């Protein structure tokens, strides 16, 4: 039996607990940032301190091979971008890339509210508590 050398990450919290830093989309990561900031789970809030948005996607990918860096980008088809845009990787290097199997958050919810609505913070907080407690994922 062959035992793989690379451990598959299963969640962002696993990577956080192992001391990883995170590279996020250089164009816009405001939705991710808001979700992390409003989480009732302090570990998600702490992830913001380890997020950087100073590298292009290909440079961020190179950083993942150098050390404990992970890319957070839910909207980009990563495998396609790697093959089409970042051409300078050997087969061995390509075999070292891993995708986390869990979603960053169990699901995405968008609720339109009027700009400046007085209940927005309370509503967001309550919804995030449902996500953090596992109720949304369970149902």
Q: How is this structure best described in words?
A:
- By secondary structure, this protein is mainly alpha-helical.
- The chain has one domain.
- The protein has 8 helices and 3 strands; from the N terminus they run H-E-H-H-E-H-E-H-H-H-H.
- The chain has helices spanning 12-17, 30-37, 42-47, 57-66, 78-85, 91-96, 120-133, 135-138, and strands spanning 21-24, 51-52, 69-72.
- Strands 2-1-3 form a 3-stranded parallel beta sheet, covered by helices on one side.
- The protein is elongated and about 50 Å long.
- The N and C termini lie far apart (39 Å).
- 12% of the residues are buried.
- The model has no long low-confidence stretch (mean pLDDT 78).
Write a concise synopsis of the structure shown.
The protein is built from eight helices and three strands.
Secondary structure elements and pairings:
Elements: H1 12-17, E1 21-24, H2 30-37, H3 42-47, E2 51-52, H4 57-66, E3 69-72, H5 78-85, H6 91-96, H7 120-133, H8 135-138
**Total domain modules:** 1
Unreliable residue stretches = none
Instruction: Name the shape in a single word.
Output: elongated
Number of distinct beta strands: 3
Report Rg. Answer: 17 Å
Structural class: mainly alpha
**Mean of all residue-level pLDDT scores:** 78
Oligomer: single chain
Strand content: 5-15%
Which H/E pattern describes the elements?
Answer: HEHHEHEHHHH
Which strands sit side by side, in order, in the main sheet? 2-1-3
The count of helical stretches stands at: 8
Percentage of residues in helical conformation: 40-55%
Main β sheet profile: 3 strands, parallel
Distance between the termini: 39 Å
